[in-house]
Amino acid sequence: MKKLEKIDLFNFGLENGKQRAYTPLFYQLFGQPLHSAPIVIVNHALTGNSNITGENGWWNDLIGENKTIDTNYFTVIAFNIPGNGFDNNFGNLISNYKDFTIRDIARIFWEGLFFLNVNSVFALIGGSLGGSIAWEMTALQPDKIANLIPIATDWKATDWVIANVLIQDQILNNSDDPIADARLHAMLLYRTPQSVNQRFQREKLNENSIFQIENWLVNHGIKLKNRFRLSSYKLMNHLLKTNDITRERNNFQSVITTINANIHIVAVDTDYFFIADENRKDYQQAKLVKENVFYHEINSIHGHDAFLIEINQLSQILEPIFNKQKQQKYVSA
Question: Which residues form the AB hydrolase-1 domain (predicted)?
Answer without folding.
Answer: 38-160
